[in-house]
Amino acid sequence: MIMSLRIFTRKCRDKDDAWTILSFVPKIHSDTSTGDWMFVESGHMAATEAATAILQGEGIEENARVNNMQDHHNLLELVLDGLAKLQQNGGFLWDLRYEGQVFKDVHFIPYISHLRVEEKEVSSLCGRHGAYTKGVKSYCHNCTCRSEESDSPDAKFQIKTPKMINRLARQNDEDALNAMSQHNINNAFHKLQFGKHNNRGIHGACPSEMLHAILLGLFLYCRSVFFEQIGPSSKAAKAVNALAKLYGKLFQHQSDRDMPHTKFEKGIQADKLMAKQHRDMLLIMAAILRCSRGRQTLAETRKGCFNTQEQIWDRVLLVETLLEWEHWLCSEENGPLCCCLHEKKEQVHHAPVEEDCQPNQGFGMEHRQVSQHPSHMGRHFDVWNSTGV
Questions:
Q1: What are the domain boundaries of the chain?
Q2: Number of neighbouring beta carbons within 10 Å of residue 209
Q3: Do the Cβ atoms of 301 and 238 come closer than 8 Å?
Q4: What pLDDT digit, counting tens, does each position of 195-227 carry?
Q5: Which phi and psi angles does 341 have, rounded to 5°?
């Protein structure tokens, strides 16, 4: 676990020396524990220390259920104890050096702005069930939207807060917590102070990350659904893949690495792509949907997903809007007006996803809903909360 300060500029935070290590949080593996027991039972003289460590857990009821998630948060609480006490004591005084001038006794009140973590760690830190498969009650770590409603861009849902989760945990209301896919634990981050612009705490301080949520998530799903609607093993799919190889070769730029990488030796259907290459893959898909040869090939598919011009224009709208959206998210500056408009734009660009990725066209309902769960439609909140706009 590492940390940095928000008083540093973004350019400074991109440097390694702007970050410091808070601690190393261990992960206990069951196979390691089993190996320790086997070592003790062997009777080896060197197994004395291992036996002592194991016997430290004596006194716990044999039938007591051990919650691995609670163990993890107990470790985090120990790591964050110093920060919690610092916040409770009202901060600290510091001589701040800024632009060659020293400002004496500046009162700093530390708070947590946001955490840069992957999707798997987000579920762990928020105390959420980590699965995204069929049967999960809720896919999102920051709201209570039910999984069967998560494919609707107009869904209404309640935001998760530490107060809400703690109340249910104190009441030991397992049913209510399971309904929102939350563990019944004492979350270590619920005792810490986050920004006072809202009351969402840790549940609103874990913004979605570009790699898994968008590039390897939504963009990858669009390619999979595109070829599923064509027919993965059909002649049309082979023709579309051949067009992709042709356009990729024509679009390539040997000397400019800032331009999209469009040359895919095996096409875009089955080739394993790097994460950043998925946006380049969408560019090829847009060219295929725009060209006359590509539209003629798509119109000959037997599944009937590209028979009319309206159907093809829907796919054009989807692909081009996703490309524009990704470009906007990667821009260096986003003003308050852009963030306000982005809330409506998210609903607009998810509408063609809902229309085009129908569950009866080769994919299960959970595939469609995971690609659209509310964290994709709440990135304007992430911009507000995590960038200080």
A1: 210-387
A2: 17
A3: no
A4: 877 888 898 888 877 887 788 888 888 888 888
A5: -70, -30
